[in-house]
Amino acid sequence: MDTIVMTWVGCSIPEIGAALGEMRRVLRPGGYLLFVEHGRAPKPRVARWQDRLNPLWQRFCGGCRLNRKIDDLLSDAGFQIDRLSTGYIPGPKIMTFFYEAAAMPR
């Protein structure tokens, strides 16, 4: 594969490490994983609320997790992040911190 696009689904994949590993496996050298995901906020107070609410949120929102740190998950799966933008989109901070990036297999 030359390119994989992942948008707003990484929060709800049960075994995200295995899924990212498969994406890395099928990407050719120099291929890209392009993604936009919401996840763990950098502000400690917001992150604590994400951790507190996550079990209930996950149960009622189709397995969605509020507190996945997407950049770390990609790194752990063998990706090198080429470009990364983060920030809050409008809405409650516990669910609106986003990551937008391009990553390549290491």
Tell me the layout of helices and strands.
Blueprint: E1 3-7, H1 16-26, E2 32-38, H2 44-60, H3 70-76, E3 79-88, E4 97-105
Parallel strand pairs: 1-2
Antiparallel strand pairs: 2-4, 3-4
Q: Can you give a write-up of this model?
A:
The structure is a single chain. The chain is of the alpha+beta class and 106 residues long. 33% of the residues lie in helices and 29% in strands. It contains three helices and four strands; from the N terminus they run E-H-E-H-H-E-E. The protein has a four-stranded mixed beta sheet. The model has no long low-confidence stretch (mean pLDDT 96).
Which keywords apply here?
106 residues, alpha+beta, 4-stranded mixed β-sheet, 4 strands
So what's the overall shape? globular
The end-to-end span amounts to 15 Å
What is the residue-averaged pLDDT?
A: 96
Please give the oligomerization state of what you see. Answer: single chain
Number of strands: 4
- How much helix is in the residues? 25-40%
Briefly say what this structure is.
This protein has 3 helices and 4 strands; from the N terminus they run βαβααββ. It has 106 residues and is of the alpha+beta class.
